[in-house]
Specification:
Number of helices of chain A: 13
Order of helices and strands of chain A: EHEHEHEHHHEHEHEEEEHEEHEHEHH
CATH topology of the largest domain in chain B: Chloramphenicol Acetyltransferase
Strand content of chain B: 25-35%
Number of domains of chain A: 2
Number of domains of chain B: 2
Oligomer: heterodimer
Shape of chain B: elongated
Low-confidence stretches of chain B: 84-122, 161-171
Mean pLDDT of chain B: 81
Distance between the termini of chain B: 44 Å
Largest interface: A-B, 12 and 15 residues
Structural class of chain B: alpha+beta
CATH superfamily of the largest domain in chain A: Thiamin diphosphate (ThDP)-binding fold, Pyr/PP domains
Radius of gyration of chain A: 20 Å
Number of strands of chain B: 20
Low-confidence stretches of chain A: none
Shape of chain A: globular
Largest sheet of chain A: 7 strands, mixed
């Protein structure tokens, strides 16, 4: 306890606390995935849970994403509340058929008879020199699919609170945890719990431009906002939190105040989530705009392995600052 | 202190040239006073003020083109203390800059107000700036942009107070300009308004006989024409049919408590306007006749008042005694109805069980289906016909 009611923690510990609380609260909840048990999770999120909850509820799976995601969907149909962990979004492509063709569509295909209350967690993003097959940000693809909810916790409170709300959802929810956030440290209230998953959040108020980020790019947007403030440019920072469905009202309200927007997305620019947000702003706030919507995205390359190239490919605060200046003409 | 602004004298008006001031700074004005003359596509219009006070300052020099909504003068309300000149809060208006004479003989009617500056400037005006400029009637031409690439942004518009324009010499009605104004308004009407049309033949034999008897004892200048009867019959009937009297704006019909009848007046040499006869429902027939004579004279002289142009809540178009059987009108937006009257003509007509010659006139209704339906339209037209047939009640 560092202050009254505040606990020093990390993003990783907050996710673990969320899983532990869910396991305790509802016996239908179990965790399943590669290395989640004995190894404690490839990002050590589930460390200690096997000892605490046993192999029935912390289940190591074979290396077949299609199989264990499919098993999770089946368990959900059977009345369980599975949390399925996929190591990275890159590997989720092997389970794409299960997620998109089955989890997202069954409610529709069954005429509303079968809902699929599965929660799928996966790591996303670059920055750990894991190269092009472990570093991509494909959450925008999932945000394309009706039938899914897509969450991107960027703060400790959301890491701690989104899972519980997701488990209450009668339909499939995918949670993207950015790999660079796991070590993020900070304080959280001791009684932190469930949070809403249908609203974006304004993380910093400003009058000159709206920076729109989520997950791994929220911190970079906030960093850029701090740098801009030193030059008298007040950037508002919106954390999307939920990538599907997008909270259009919050985005539009902020842009209507600032009249400028820069979207920061670790996905690629072409056909990406940033394009969707830019289009939403065009549709809902065109007459409020004082400048074209700016985008700072990952370079259109497979994420490189060498550190300097990897960093050069990713959205960085300096690029965000430059994009903001372009919208302001100064 | 309030701003006296360039009024909109019709849905299609974007700007007007201030021709002359009829009041000067320091002069007292009262509601309804004509304080300026503005040149529009419809000719020179006398602009009225609708508050009492004292002209504090004239903001625009004669010859300046001013967009709708832009301030023309500052008016100090009655009882408000005069402001010392040094404490002026409003920055002075930019002086009118003589712009090069237009190269083309005419300019397009639907010209956006910022269409004058260089291409580069026009291409670099933010949506927010355009929106504010449109709402506030501020011209973008000549503004210095401070946004990206020199774009005019909202802050630049906020700093601006008015635009300057090329001085235009005063002139009477320009038939070419009027044609364009009519084209724009009527094209908009047929594009936006889902018209429906109803016609009804009215036996006006008794009405014309009543009129003839009335006029028999009058000198020619005092004689009534049929037109004021038509106006009055429509005006009285509209009290019971509010869905035909008002304006359709911002996707909603707004009925009007007052009944101001736009009266279509043809102009010699082509063109027409439909200025309002105000409160037609409470004017006597003689008053309506006088108003009509005055309006026709001033229309043809090109001296209409601002309120007459923007006030009409409905239009009546009558073909008089040298026209054809009937007309199907084009509604003048944002109004929602146009009542038409053809020329009365002698026709074989069944009266009782016999056929005899009667004076028959075709009344028509063109109405906006967004505001009313045909059933009510038919009841309205029947009620107008009944009133016409009982002229002593008008």
């Amino acid at each position: 306890m560092s202050a009254a009611g505040m606990v020093q923690t990390t993003y990783r510990e907050a996710v673990r606390a969320a899983i532990r609380a869910a396991l305790k609260a509802d016996e239908r909840v179990f965790l399943m995935g590669e290395d989640v048990g004995r190894y404690g999770g490839c990002y050590a999120v589930s460390k200690g849970l096997l000892a605490e909850f046993g192999p029935e509820r912390i289940r190591d799976t074979p290396l077949s994403e299609a199989a264990f995601v499919g098993a999770g969907i089946g368990a959900a149909l059977g009345g369980m509340r599975p949390i399925v962990e996929i190591m990275t979004v890159n590997f989720s492509l092997l389970a794409l058929d299960q997620i998109v063709n089955t989890a997202a569509t069954l409610l529709h295909m069954s005429g509303g008879q079968f809902n699929v209350p599965v929660v799928i967690r996966m790591a996303t993003g670059a920055g750990r020199q894991l190269a092009a097959q472990h570093s991509h940000s494909l959450e925008g693809w999932y945000a394309h699919v009706p039938g899914l909810k897509v969450l991107a916790p960027a703060t400790l409170a959301d890491a701690r609170g989104m899972l519980a709300t997701a488990l209450e959802d009668p339909n499939p929810v995918i949670i993207f945890e950015h790999v660079m956030l796991y070590n993020m440290a900070g304080e959280l209230t001791a009684d932190a719990g469930a949070v809403p998953i249908d609203k974006a959040a304004v993380r910093r108020l400003g009058r000159d431009v709206t920076l729109i980020g989520y997950g791994g790019t929220l911190g970079k947007a906030l960093e850029a906002a701090t740098a801009l403030a030193a030059d008298g440019i007040e950037a508002e920072v919106v954390d999307l939190r939920t990538l599907r469905p997008l909270d259009t009202a919050t985005i539009v309200a902020s842009v209507a105040r600032t009249r400028r927007a820069v979207v920061v997305d670790e996905g690629w620019r072409t056909g990406g989530l940033s394009a969707e947000i830019s289009a939403l702003i065009m549709e809902h706030a065109f007459w409020e705009l004082d400048a074209p919507v700016g985008r700072v995205c990952t370079a259109e390359v497979p994420i490189p392995y060498p550190r300097h190239l990897e960093q050069a490919a990713l959205p960085q605060p300096a690029a965000i600052v430059a994009a903001v200046r372009a919208t302001l003409g100064r | 202190m309030s701003e006296f602004r360039m009024p909109s004298l019709g849905a299609d008006m974007e700007d007007g040239v201030l021709v002359e001031w009829l009041k000067q700074a320091g002069e007292a004005v009262s509601r309804g006073d004509i304080i300026a003359v503005v040149e529009t596509q419809k000719g020179a219009i006398e602009i009225e003020i609708f508050e009492a006070g004292t002209i504090e300052r004239l903001l625009v020099d004669p010859g300046t083109r001013v967009p709708v909504g832009a301030p023309l003068a500052l008016v100090r309300g009655a009882g408000e203390p005069a402001r010392p000149a040094v404490a002026e809060a409003t920055p002075p208006m930019p002086k009118s800059e003589p712009a090069p004479a237009p190269a083309a003989p005419s300019r397009p009617v639907a010209r956006p107000i910022e269409a004058r500056p260089s291409e580069a400037t026009r291409d670099r005006t933010s949506p927010a700036a355009r929106q504010l400029a449109a709402v506030r009637g501020i011209a973008l031409a000549g503004l210095v942009g401070t946004g990206p690439g020199g774009a005019i942004v909202r802050a630049d518009v906020e700093r601006a107070l008015a635009k300057t324009g090329a001085p235009t010499p005063r002139r009477g009605i320009d038939p070419g300009e009027m044609r364009k104004a009519i084209a724009a308004a009527m094209a908009r009407s047929n594009r936006e308004i889902p018209h429906y049309y109803l016609t009804h033949q009215v036996d006006v034999t008794a009405t014309l006989a009543w009129l003839e008897a009335l006029n028999a004892g009058r000198q020619p200048p005092e004689r009534l024409l049929l037109a004021p009867l038509l106006l009055k019959a429509v005006a009285l009937t509209l009290r019971d049919f509010p869905e035909f009297n008002g304006h359709f704006v911002e996707n909603a019909f707004r009925p009007s408590a007052e009944i101001h009848i736009g009266t279509a007046i043809a102009i010699r040499g082509g063109g027409l306007v439909a200025p309002a006869i105000h409160d037609a429902n409470i004017k006597h027939l003689d008053e309506l006749m006088a108003a009509l004579r005055d309006l026709v004279a001033r229309t043809r002289a090109g001296r209409l008042r601002s309120s007459e142009l923007f006030d009409p809540t409905v239009t009546v178009s009558s073909l008089g005694d040298r026209g054809v059987d009937g007309l199907l009108g084009v509604i003048y937006p944002p109004q929602v109805a146009l009542v038409g009257f053809g020329t009365p003509a002698s026709r074989p007509w069944v009266v009782g069980d016999r056929i005899g010659p009667r004076m028959v006139m075709t009344a028509s209704l063109a109405a906006d289906h967004r505001a009313s339906d045909g059933h009510r339209g038919a009841l309205f037209l029947l009620a107008v016909a009944r009133r016409l047939q009982e002229p002593e009640g008008l």
